[in-house]
Amino acid sequence: MSEGYEALRRGAAFLDVSARGRIVARGRDRARLLHNLSTNEVKKMMPGSGCYAFLLNPQGRIQADLHLLCFDEHFLIETDSELRDKVQQHIRRYIIADQVELEDVTARTSEIAIEGPGAAAALVALNSPIPGSDYSHLAWGDATVASMSLTGQPGFRLFCGPEKAAELLHQLASAGAKPATEGDIRQVRIENGKPRYGEDIRENSLPQETQQMHAVSFTKGCYLGQEIVERIRAQGHVNKKLVRVEIEASEAPPAGTKLTANGAEAGEITSGVYSPEFAKVVGLAYVRTPHANSATELQAGDARVLVR
């Protein structure tokens, strides 16, 4: 068990995540365009608020996930590094007569994650303000503090200039936070059942399949792919769901491992890790809806799998 993993679980851990994508959207039509392209409510957002959302294609399939942070004169679009170009291309495809400008600011900004049950206390020790609700954000001098989590633990994100990042990392360490690795982050994320686009959420996934419904507003009106999402809600179900599973094995099965129920195919694993916290292998899997209830028993080869 690494120091970073233990800090994520019991204290506070930090990681420089500046490789993630950061795109600024400006122009008088920015809110309307982003509202019409994303699954969450954007038009009603006020400066200081934020949300998590999907970008869909016309068939309702998830093309990207992202965070939207609302500022006085712009939106900050924050996304996975592997989605950075894709998100810009997707949005630009639909800029026709809209007055909207996109600027990729990834290279000239920095981003630091601090997560764990002690994350807020570590920031308070540095006289940082603490945002009060999910995805909300506050100014902290020339930096911004947002309530966001990579792992599903209590967490915050610090946005600043590259010249400020080294100082903040040093201050976080002085406040008792421990450095974490990408491996620590992934381990705790999967333990908490938090999916990642490209690993658990796929380009052909439907929003309801992922069960990440905090990314979707059903009252906002029309947006790209909305007809499919609404049709699924009216029908009341999808054929498969992304669920957390516990696996009785010494090592995590590889992604794509098939799950069965009474010999019949029931789903497949998308990610897995050995969990020191639970002393067993945990993972995420797409499971056929009849088998997606908690405590349902499945098989992965000879290994017993429980939906949790």
Question: TL;DR?
Answer:
This protein has 308 residues and is α+β, with helices and mostly antiparallel strands. The protein has 8 helices and 17 strands. The chain has helices at residues 3-10, 30-37, 84-93, 119-125, 162-174, 182-191, 207-210, 226-235, and strands at residues 13-16, 21-26, 50-56, 62-70, 75-79, 101-104, 110-115, 137-140, 143-146, 155-160, 178-179, 240-247, 258-261, 264-275, 280-288, 297-300, 303-307.
Description:
The chain has 308 residues and is an alpha+beta fold. It has 2 domains: 3-188, Probable tRNA modification gtpase trme, domain 1 (Gyrase A, domain 2, 2-Layer Sandwich); 239-308, Elongation Factor Tu (Ef-tu), domain 3 (Beta Barrel). It has 8 helices and 17 strands. The protein has helices at residues 3-10, 30-37, 84-93, 119-125, 162-174, 182-191, 207-210, 226-235; strands at residues 13-16, 21-26, 50-56, 62-70, 75-79, 101-104, 110-115, 137-140, 143-146, 155-160, 178-179, 240-247, 258-261, 264-275, 280-288, 297-300, 303-307. The protein has a 6-stranded mixed sheet. Helix 1 (3-10) crosses helix 6 (182-191). It is flat and about 55 Å long. The model has no long low-confidence stretch (mean pLDDT 97).
